[in-house]
Amino acid sequence: MTAILRSYALRLLPQLIALAAILLMVSFVFPGFFRLEIQNGRLYGSLIDIFNRGAPVVLLAIGMTVVIATKGIDLSVGAVMAICGAVAASSITSGHSLAMTLLITLGTGILCGLWNGFLVAVLDIQPIIATLVLMVAGRGIAQLVTEGAILTFNDPGLIFLGSGSFAWLPLPVLIWLAFGILVALIVRKTALGMLIEAIGVNRQASTLSGVLTPVLLIAAYMLSGLCAAIAGIIAAADIKGADANNAGLWLELDAILAVVIGGTSLLGGRFSIAASVLGAIIIQSINTGILLSGFPPEFNLIIKAAIIVFILVLQSPPARNALTFVALLRASRKPTERQAR
Amino acid sequence: MKFAKALASATILAACTFGSASAADLVVGFSQIGSESGWRAAETTLTKQQAEERGIDLKFADAQQKQENQIKALRSFIAQGVNAILLAPVVATGWDEVLQEAKDAEIPVILLDRTVDASDDLYMTAVTSDLVHEGSVAGKWLADTVAGKPCNVVELQGTTGSSPAIDRKKGFEQALSGHDNLKIVRSQTGDFTRTKGKEVMESFLKAEDGGKNICALYAHNDDMAVGAIQAIKEAGLKPGSDILVVSIDAVPDIFEAMAAGEANATVELTPNMAGPAFDALAAFQKDGTKPPKWIQTESKLYTQADDPKKVYEAKKGLGY
């Protein structure tokens, strides 16, 4: 058990170090950063904001990780978020119950994933092109649903999903925590994760060795669609309205970035959901940190890019080799030093 | 092609001779950008309404955010020999040729809401709002309302580098200069969206001692203000009284917030750009009065005293 935990910690070490460094940096520019208090029966503070605001990207990153592990990519998640937010808002305003609304919305997300999966697995279209279709069309579909306006709603149940709290934690945080653990358990406690990795390494070889490749591929994209649907519900519930033009805009790129920061290779074959979640939290920490720092907005993107480049360079093979080299050098010197004493 | 042009100008001549009698025979082409925002949808609705009230036959063309579609629409209006053309240009450059064609056909062109980089003898007039003035109306309201008391203001800017963000910031700062009691303590972009408005306001509240240091919020548009109002409420403060909220655009949802006492004031960016345009056109048709090259629309200030519930009901159906 401890061996498993240790290997897990070792895998997540670069991400954890990066996160700690960023949080430390933010606390320098904004001293009250780590302060937490209980207000209105919930924890209140910048750290909670990071976990709460990061919810959509975390959720997208969970689905994206599994898709990328199959050597695919899902560019449509941002647009699917917009579609699902629009569907949820229009369903609740047209008088459906909350349960029905959630069912319809999650179903819509899964359906979008099914479409992507069909294009990739059955028609054999390259994932980047296949999902580009829905990325472009999706926002249009969402606008059709909301008729171009921001569709607002007042259903307390749906709003609770975005801004409510349970056990002192904002509900979006609990949702992504529970969902992330669930997905991680399903893929890691069964052979599913290994089969997904097998497809990513060599799709043809895994098909020949009896893996149901098309089914698993479609399932991966459906999971990504489901994640986007949950993220879309949270984003809409958060502002009590569905904004087809802006919901999830460019978030597919943040999700891919989160997966990359998490150390999952875009070439597929290996993945870690926990690392991707950490990657998403790192991105949100940077965002929140910039907002708290009080720099003029013209600097936002440059600061973000600089930090991300730094993290990625640290993870790059040449940098890793250099680090190992330095470590080896020190290790080899130690015994001689001891002898000298 | 030449024949078509000759035919077109002939029909215009005919239309003009008949048209001078009453506005009822006016045919006006309207090239709209597309459906990029709720405000634009409202502008389209109001333009159609205004045309109907005046008995103008409006030919509507939606360009779906593409300049080539707008140029195509303008050429077809010219070929149809309309009496005038309304143009909401999607970009500022590249209009010289088609505007010259309209001029050659003696069809007056009126620009709505945005201007173009072309010689101003190519169009009759431009009906736009003054973005700097909008910001200064908001700033003046705030200065008058706090009346000398010290007040820390946080600002939610529009998309970085966009002209509304630059000008609305400039106008607001102009109105604040000379009032040393008012200080902008934090200013960040909220990208004109509710989500970002809420997220940025959350961080403002944390950074300024849980919001106790903030006395007013100025948002470059209403959507960001609506998001920020939710953030203020979730932080356990009362928007509208603990933190004053002033924004720009006057979309329906801000009136709902104002009716609930959660927002204080908004400056209207009127979607009725066509009304003044049609008025100028009518005067021109009647006795050839040339309007000024720029018709500035009114930047009306709405506060809680202006019966926000009623304004909300009136604006709701416009397609915002």
TrEMBL record, chain B:
Q: Name one GO cellular component term.
A: cell envelope
Q: Which residue range or ranges hold the Periplasmic binding protein domain?
A: 29-275
One Pfam match, given by its short name, reads Peripla_BP_4
Keywords on record = Signal
Question: Mostly located where?
Answer: other
- A GO molecular-function term, please? carbohydrate binding
**This chain belongs to which protein, by name?**
Sugar ABC transporter substrate-binding protein
Any signal peptide, and if so, which residues?
Answer: 1-23
Please state which protein family the record places this protein in: Belongs to the bacterial solute-binding protein 2 family.
Q: Where in the cell does this protein reside?
A: Cell envelope
